[in-house]
Amino acid sequence: MKIKGCFTAAISFCMLVLLFCGCGRQQSEVPEKIQVGVACYNQSDVFLGELVSCLKQQFEELEDSGIEITVMVRDAAGSQRTQDDQVRELIDMNCNVLCVNLVDRADPSEIIDLARDNDVPIIFFNREPVAEDMMQWEKLYYVGAKAQQSGEMQGELAADAVAGDAQTDRNRDGKIQYVVLEGEPGHQDAIIRTESAVDTLKSKGVALEKLGSGIANWDRAQAQNRMQQLLSQYPNQIEMVLANNDAMALGAIDAYKKLNYTEAALPVFFGIDGTEAGLEAVIEGKVAATVYNDKEGQAQAIGNLAVAAVTGRGMDEMAFENEKYIYLPYQKVTEENVREFLY
Ligand code: BGC
Ligand code: CA
Q1: Are 76 and 42 in contact (CB under 8 A)?
Q2: What pTM does this model have?
């Protein structure tokens, strides 16, 4: 009896020890199931829509490599309020990492507070929060590209086009009369792209005359509208259109078509992004050149970072700048190399 009692006590002790060890292990163990919440500012934005498709594909590939992943995507349709609610909902649904494409890049505080309270890391992408906000918590990251580089490349491409074709200066006054179609005010890519494209053209010795500009919020239809207004002010005078993205370059072309301009009377158009429609327009010679915004590279970085942020593995392999930023390089696209960008 006594021996049996001792034996039972010993067994219970062992079980307790095991239980403790087990609990301890479970607590320090990282969750292997990755539940990603993706919040987008507006999926009707052409580039963003294509970037989100790449991101979904990236997560599928990671899943094929044996990582258990579920992805939930929400579209805020342009409202920060809606996005805040969607992030709350994603956290309630047990997402353990968030990929956030902010509506208002100057207003991420509510989302950051929610994520920090629940210890859910955030990878912001495409719409860069200001530096002070990125400092609010150590588990905040950003994946994107450098606006200045895209503007410089657009300026170089435009300078090459002017140097390569005397016809660009249609009225032969030694200057290029140009207009700019700008993205959303306040977006890191809008003003900087315009400034660096124009500065680069000037630094390459191209004499410029700015006729006007219009804000078209990255949107093709708005760009068509703005361009029609510019054309009513400056009929037959515009020699170059610098658009902050492809969608707006295509909108500008739509305006000329709508107003029945002949092919021979068109200016040169430049875009940025290399969206499907943008690349197609380069192939057809409608857009002179564009700058590739590497959505595949960005999606890959976001995917790998999401896995690393949840599991803690692979963080060392991330190409961080300033510990939390990953920037993918832009590339110039002309009719010579455009086919390399078709996937
Ligand atoms: C892209 C635009 C897009 C915007 C959305 C930019 O980087 O070039 O096409 O509309 O991001 O935030
Ligand atoms: Ca001229």
Answers
A1: yes
A2: 0.91
